[in-house]
Design a protein that fits this description.
6-stranded antiparallel β-barrel, mainly beta, 5-stranded mixed sheet, 352 residues, elongated
């Protein structure tokens, strides 16, 4: 990933300052001293006051959430399958076996048995709530399958032009948490379907982004972190980190073997997000913000012989060296304090 802050600040500072600006020893333990040389630095930059944000960019992949397999609920010949990329909603066909539609209903639990009067359980309530949502009422949605439930099922069966049995099983219905998108078709029309064999791979219908982050940088993107995603068409969309992986694994880049965690971004308005599945995107993250702080360019820092860092303050044609305390690094600048620094002062930097 590309980061706005310095990852190895001390090493970078040493590399920048070595051989560019003479460093003098501070005397008497004070916070500043006169520069030993009388020459001015090759260039200057102002001390700025403002907010400093710890930002980062990561390459991600546009996709869909909640991938799962849809297995056949009955034996027979597969006679119809949906188009890849299409969306299936409540009561719409998922696939057909021997010309009989298996329809989608919403629910977290599986359709694992044939329901009939006298049956009880959460799957009964799940079916009844779907029937009620479709307008087939006359019963109380609960965990008991009554004759009133069977009467509603018969009306649903008549509307879908199937035999009116009053019973519903895996050969009729598949449950999913919500509407699904068909990612791939696992069996062709004409294939023999068997209970438990895959027919479709589906996902949720909402767009998401997944990306990897170094374990050491994972504090930048905790669950709930707001992000901005640059989409393939050049537009951007706001989102939120919805989940952070709990297991660190080697990254996909063979050149970078450091441990990574996988994060997921949910969009604030997923229906507005376009682009092909698995398209590359860029995730812009903003971590900690330091408000109203003084900052200087990173290359203004001097590595002091006695330890620590300083800057050269240039004023009225003279140079003095000031020891500073460092804070956050971001966007090529560093938070500094101490040494009597104030906004608008000029500090020495290498000539560009």
């Amino acid at each position: 990933m590309r980061r706005g802050r310095a990852v190895a600040a001390v090493a970078a500072v040493l590399a920048v300052t070595a051989g560019t600006i003479a460093v003098t020893q501070l005397g008497g333990g004070g916070t500043e001293s006169a520069g030993a040389n009388t020459g001015l630095p090759p260039a200057t930059a102002p001390v700025l006051r403002g907010d400093l944000r710890d930002s980062a960019q990561a390459e991600g992949t546009l996709g869909y959430d909640k991938q799962r397999k849809i297995n056949a609920g009955a034996a027979g010949t597969l006679t119809w399958t949906p188009r890849t990329g299409s969306t299936v909603k409540r009561n719409e066909r998922l696939y057909e076996v021997d010309g009989r539609a298996v329809r989608l209903m919403y629910g977290a639990g599986p359709m694992y048995r044939t329901l009939k009067p006298g049956d009880k359980g959460r799957d009964v309530e799940q079916l009844e709530r779907n029937l009620a949502a479709l307008g087939y009422t006359g019963f109380t949605p609960d965990t008991e399958y009554t004759e009133l439930t069977a009467a509603a099922v018969k009306r649903w069966q008549k509307a879908n032009d199937v035999k009116r049995t009053g019973k519903v099983g895996p050969q009729d219905v598949t449950f999913a948490p919500g509407k699904v998108r068909i990612r791939s078709v696992e069996a062709a029309v004409g294939d023999l379907a068997q209970p438990g064999t895959p027919v479709l791979t589906t996902t949720g219908s909402e767009r998401i982004v997944t990306f990897e982050l170094d374990v050491a940088e994972s504090q930048l993107a905790k669950a709930g972190t707001k992000v901005d995603v640059e989409l393939p068409d050049g537009t951007s969309a706001p989102g939120t980190v919805s989940s952070v992986g709990r297991t660190a694994k080697p990254g996909k880049d063979p050149q970078d073997t450091g441990p990574k965690v996988t994060l997921t971004v949910s969009f604030d308005k997923p229906d507005d997000v376009g682009g092909f599945d698995q398209s590359p995107v860029t995730v812009n993250l903003t971590g900690e913000t330091r408000k109203n702080v003084l900052t200087v360019p990173v290359n203004a820092l001097l590595a002091l012989p006695g330890g620590g860092f300083g800057v050269e303050v240039v004023r009225n044609g003279t140079v003095r060296e000031v020891k500073v305390e460092l804070g956050m690094f971001a966007d090529g600048r560093v938070e500094v304090s101490g040494g009597g620094l104030s906004e608008g002062m000029k500090v020495g930097v290498p000539k560009i």
